[in-house]
Amino acid sequence: MKVVWVIGAFVALVVLLAVGLRLDPREVPSPLIDKPAPQFELPLLNAPDKTFSQKQMLGSVWVLNVWASWCPPCLEELPVVTELARSGIAPVIGLNYKDAREDALPWLKRNGDPYKLSVYDAEGRIGIDYGVYGVPETYVIDRAGLIRYKHIGPLTPEVVQKKLQPLVKELASRG
Amino acid sequence: MVRIFLLLAFFVGHALAVDESALDRRVTEIGAELRCLVCQNQTIADSQASLAVDLRNQIREQLKSGKSEQEIKDYMVARYGDFVLYRPPLKPATVALWLGPFVLLLIGIGLFYRRVARRRAPEPQLSQADRERAAKLLE
């Protein structure tokens, strides 16, 4: 009887540790899910005299990808973002976060520019409104302008295939 | 005239400095209640991460514009979730967090008492002969 208890407690502990150690403490659930995407009106990265607002995307499902030239994981996820943009399921807009134009523009030139356009958030104010804390971050925003999904850290082909693509398709089919 | 002006400048400067340092203290006070999300075991007041610096500036600006501590915390929670608060509110999602340790403590105390109770062996029953032998040994 006692042995059963000890083994039971041991197994419970192992399960607890196995689950606990797999959780990523950086994946903090965002309070912004299902809330309207915070408003912004920012200059374009490549054209400082033009601005872009999230309002212009109302009516379509789109992806907002937060990136910076100083962020190595952004370079790492770039092929995945490129693939996503190329698949054409949703427009991908870049939010260039706390970066400098003279660094960001050559970065895109060097590595390829997958974005429909990138907006320039030099001070990271809009980043704060979106709860950005670990670049890169990716948001899926629906036709009504609600944030439906947030991914923190570099996108992987698995995340795109298993979460992002099905969600975008579902949101798009909802009309 | 110049002297009066300098004196005045000194007092105004002094008053401003006191004001600034009081503001700094408030920023630190509020920042100490908020978790820095980039470096999760530090507070926004402690951390030198660039996001923490930005958020400290946010706190400072909002204090200057007359926002209360609660309004500033609400602003942070709206963006980063309850996780930013070092003292999260008690609500269904956080019940386990608040009560878990006490429940574990109670379970521990219960197990401890059960063990102690079980270990308390009954008084040995001594026969007359045993008592006599013991008395002899003790003499």
Task: Name its key features.
heterodimer; A: 175 residues; alpha/beta; Glutaredoxin; two-stranded antiparallel ribbon; 7 strands; 40% helix; elongated; B: 139 residues; mainly alpha; Helicase, Ruva Protein, domain 3; 2 domains; 67% helix
Strand runs of chain B, count: 0
CATH architecture of chain A: 3-Layer(aba) Sandwich
* Structural classification of chain B: mainly alpha
| Helix/strand order of chain B | HHHHH
Classification by helices and strands of chain A = alpha/beta
Number of domains of chain A: 1
N-to-C SSE series of chain A?
HEEEHEHEHEEH
CATH class of chain A: Alpha Beta
CATH fold type of chain A: Glutaredoxin
Oligomeric organization of the protein chains: heterodimer
- Kindly report the spatial arrangement of strands forming the biggest sheet of chain A: 5-4-3-6-7
Fraction of residues in β-strands of chain A: 15-25%
Q: What's the helix count of chain B?
A: 5
Question: Helices, strands, pairings?
Answer:
The complex is a heterodimer of chains A (175) and B (139).
Chain A lengths: L1 H21 L18 E3 L7 E3 L8 E6 L4 H16 L4 E6 L3 H11 L5 E5 L3 H5 L7 E5 L5 E6 L4 H17 L2
Chain B lengths: L1 H30 L18 H15 L4 H12 L14 H25 L8 H11 L1
Helix pairs in contact in B: 1-2
